[in-house]
Design a protein that fits this description.
This protein is of the alpha+beta class and 377 residues long. The chain has one domain: 3-Layer(aba) Sandwich (Beta-lactamase). Helix content is 33%, strand content 16%. The chain is built from ten helices and ten strands. It has a six-stranded mixed sheet, sandwiched between helices. Strands 4-5 form a two-stranded antiparallel sheet. It has a two-stranded antiparallel sheet with strand order 6-7. The longest helix has 32 residues. The radius of gyration is 31 Å and the shape is globular. It starts with 5 loop residues before the first helix and ends in a 28-residue tail after the last helix.
């Protein structure tokens, strides 16, 4: 009888056992890897998109390759009944009327033509400030050097003085209501530390909004050949600002007094340039000649320089439809004309308007201009 080699049998059994263990470990590792792909923890909280639940469910499908980022387009589209601005004796070189709720352009001309915005610039100034300030109670103390350029340019001012400590809130109101260039200086230094740094923030924001015809050189709108925009771009800025509660409140305010300081013991009563310009005008959508329409101007900003002439951007609300509209005009004959032409735009091109606004005639005389006494108002 042949003797069985038990040593070899034991060795073979051990080898099989090792192989089985290796296979089990390998299968387990594969399972863990596959499960792990669908249970990877979410990255740290995105400060712009906050998670509302502690545990975020993960998809069981393979993630698609992300597309190339598309260019942001906030420009309103032309309405199906868009009209080219055609109003008798109209002096504005560029115009646009937008329905913010339908995101459509109702009427306009030269909408993408580069214009000098003058103090319409300040809408972007307060928007950038509102989006970047830590607190509206933060303060800026004016230096004498802050007023050098303002004096040289004869720019409009709110009335702040060297050594005066002013809150961000007061600076924002002072930039819009009396169109104070001094307030803009305070905001740019408080928010960014310098004019150059703040202007970069303004231009960066313009790029984020997808604006194609805008470049800022300063925060107040003082004339510079490289400081330009378009009525289409201004309408976009107005829309974004209108969605910012602080900016909307500031631009719709007609009466405001700054806090009392040593330099201004009674505060500064801020006159509203928009109210001063449109006072006495109203939108007569129903065409009955009375100030009883549901459409009212709700806010905006004015501007003026020798080169820009009169510019104006307004919002209006129709209480019957609930729609908000925006009209932007550039290079009007003068301040009074810019106000009357704003009303004409609303009256002629608002949906359902019964107002009778005459069309332009081929022989319409060219607009004349008037001299300016205050810049960037």
């Amino acid at each position: 009888m042949k003797k069985v080699n038990r040593t070899n049998n034991k060795g073979n059994a051990a080898l099989v056992a090792v192989l089985i263990m290796i296979i089990i470990i390998g299968i387990s590792a594969i399972v863990l890897i596959l499960v792990g792909r669908n249970s990877i923890e979410e990255p740290g909280e995105n400060p712009q998109v906050k998670n509302t639940t502690a545990n975020v469910a993960t998809t069981q499908q393979t993630q698609a390759v992300p597309e190339e980022p598309k260019e942001l387009d906030l420009y309103p589209k032309q309405a199906s009944e868009f009209k080219e601005t055609n109003i008798k004796d109209f002096t504005a070189d560029a115009s646009i009327l937008v329905d913010f709720d339908d995101d459509t352009v109702l009427a306009g001309k030269n909408m993408d033509k580069r214009i000098f915005p003058a103090s319409l610039t300040k809408v972007m100034t307060i928007l950038v400030a509102a989006e970047n300030l830590k607190s509206y109670d933060d303060t800026y103390t004016f230096k004498d050097s802050d007023f050098t350029k303002i004096r040289e340019e004869n720019a409009s001012v709110a009335g702040f003085k060297p050594g005066e400590k002013v809150t961000a809130k007061d600076l924002m109101y002072a930039a819009i209501l009396p169109s104070g260039a001094d307030a803009c200086v305070g905001l740019e230094n408080l928010v960014a530390g310098s004019e150059a740094a703040f202007v970069k923030m303004m231009n960066d924001r313009a790029k984020e909004l997808g604006l194609k015809n805008t470049n800022f050189v300063n925060s107040s709108g003082l004339h510079n050949k490289d400081h330009y925009s378009s009525v289409n771009d201004i309408a976009v800025i107005m829309k974004v600002a209108n969605h910012n509660m602080t900016c909307r409140t500031v631009m719709s305010t007609t009466d405001y007094v700054t806090a009392k300081t040593t330099q201004n013991p009674n505060g500064i009563k801020l006159p509203c340039t928009l109210t001063g310009r449109i006072g006495g005008f109203y939108i007569d959508k129903n065409g009955n000649g009375s100030n009883d329409d549901p459409v009212r101007i709700t806010g905006g900003k004015t501007g003026f320089t020798d080169e820009a002439k009169a510019t104006i951007a307004t919002t209006a609300k129709d209480s019957d439809t609930g729609h908000t509209y925006c009209c932007v005009l550039a290079k009007c004959k003068d301040a009074l004309t810019s106000a009357s032409e704003t009303m004409s735009m609303y009256e002629k091109y608002l949906p359902g308007s019964k107002a009778k606004i005459a069309d332009a005639t081929p022989a319409a005389a060219a607009a004349t201009t008037t001299a300016a006494t205050t810049k960037a108002a």
